[in-house]
Amino acid sequence: MALTGLDIFKLLPKTNCKKCGMPTCLAFAMALAQKRAKLEDCPDVSEEAKGKLAAASAPPMRKIVFGTQENQVQLGQETVMFRHEEKFYNPTALTVTVSDKLTGEDLTKRIKAVNALQFERIGIKIGVKAIALINDSGSSDSFAQAAATVKDASNLALILVTDSPDAMAAAAAKTKESVPLLASATPDTAEEMAKVAKENGCPIVAKADSLDALAGLTEKIKAAGVEDIVLNIESPDLQSQLLNLSKMRALALKKVFRPLGYPTVSFATDGDADTQLASAVSLICKYAGIVVLDTVEPYAILPMLTAVMNIYTDPQKPVQVEPKVYRIGEPNENSPVMFTTNFSLTYYTLESDVESSRIPSYILVVDTEGTSVLTAYSGDKLNEKTVADAMTKYGVADLVKHRKLIIPGYVAVMSGKLEEATNWEIMVGPRECSMLPKFLQEVWN
User: Fold this and answer.
1) Residue 176 covered by a domain
2) Tens digit of each residue's pLDDT (9 = 90 or more) over 363-408
3) Claim to verify: residue 266 and residue 146 sit in the same structural domain
4) Which of 300, 333, 334, 443 has CB atoms 3.0–4.6 Å from 273's, for a disulfide?
């Protein structure tokens, strides 16, 4: 268990020197216990005390990394149960299986199908993060050969899934440069699997069927010299799995119970693509760090990725696009000009509807700190001055010979002042963006 504020205070110099930025050593101790301060902020703490205080200053959930370079996957380091309390840090990594029973062209085709599960949504690239190679063959040689093929044919991070220490050792030796995640060590194989992980410098998955067994297993793995662990709690059904994941999260974050202070992996490989989709979204919400899937259907993967994106977006920092003039199609000096805010969802919705009109246009994106049109207007972040300044800054007058500006229908009330500020004719567009194609085709033309 973590040290309390008073426990920490007893280990501090008690000089009240204020070098840490706190008025007293007791205040610093309380802040450290609540994870609002760092141990290194105290320059006078003794080396002996540092060792005892390390547990109090460490994050309640350990950060785990596997994979390399731009495709490295980071898990853990979460600090809250619910996103509105602060934010979630490392998004759930969706992973798709590849069986080592596949060989030759079939294996290559499956790897390519997983590699292709990459998308773009509101200007952000999202996609599957890893491949989980499953030792379905039961053969160490087949597993190692397939692992080498996956490593060479994919830039995605790799998870090696087998209960055999021999098969794991063979595959890890072939792929250790890519830092795979080794899944899984059980209570019966913990020492052998931990040895493989330590020799190859890889993180490992601890798998057990109860919280008590899982906590004991992580301690056994740590005693064998492996600190980087991912948890897999075996549960009979989805309801039990979600309950166990929630309990583990609460014990790690609320009670700072170190044996369960690790990210988790869950398997949603049963059933068809729709069933996997439903299970995966539930697991993403509560609180799987990795979700392993069997489907390669894009229609099922994209909603899962969208759920991850929505949940792991910082609620205090809206997703924004760069304020500037965007060209839709190949606009010219006679093309329509309209404006919107730099809230990503607003811009990309508008962009899609303008594209569907097949009328080349200019979209001026005004900086409203990532808020939507009505929100920005009600907060006075969108007014005649901000629009006029943006038009001047981005040279809108130099793009067209006409002087007509289309504004969102929901802010028609600002048309008069905007006309005075810009000396442009203001055309009030439709209130609903979906009606914009018809407006451009019939009213503008």
Assistant:
1) yes
2) 999 999 888 999 999 989 999 999 999 999 999 999 999 999 999 9
3) yes
4) 300
Is the Cβ–Cβ distance between 205 and 182 less than 8 Å?
yes
Can you tell me which residue has the tokens 């009606």?
A: 435
Residue 241 sits in the same domain as residue 350: no
Which among 44, 57, 56 is positioned nearest to 12, based on CA atoms?
A: 44
Range of the domain at 133: 64-312
Residues 31 and 104 both lie in one domain? no
Looking at residue 56, what is its pLDDT? 59
Average pLDDT over residues 163-180: 96
- Alpha carbon of residue 310 to chain centroid: 9
| Cα gap 263→245, rounded to integer Å | 10
Cross-strand partners of 161: 134, 183
- CA neighbor of 338 nearest in space, from 326, 323, 355: 326
Cα-Cα-Cα-Cα torsion 338, 341, 344, 345, nearest 10 degrees, comes to -80
For 11-25, 53-67, 84-98, 352-366, which range has the lowest pLDDT when averaged over its residues? 53-67
With respect to residue 185, please indicate whether it lies within any of the assigned structural domains.
Answer: yes
Q: Are 247 and 217 in contact (CB under 8 A)?
A: no
Q: 107 with 185, same domain?
A: yes
Residue length of the chain = 445
What is the side-by-side order of every strand in the sheet holding 404-407? 325-328, 361-366, 337-341, 404-407, 425-428
Residue 301 lies in a domain: yes
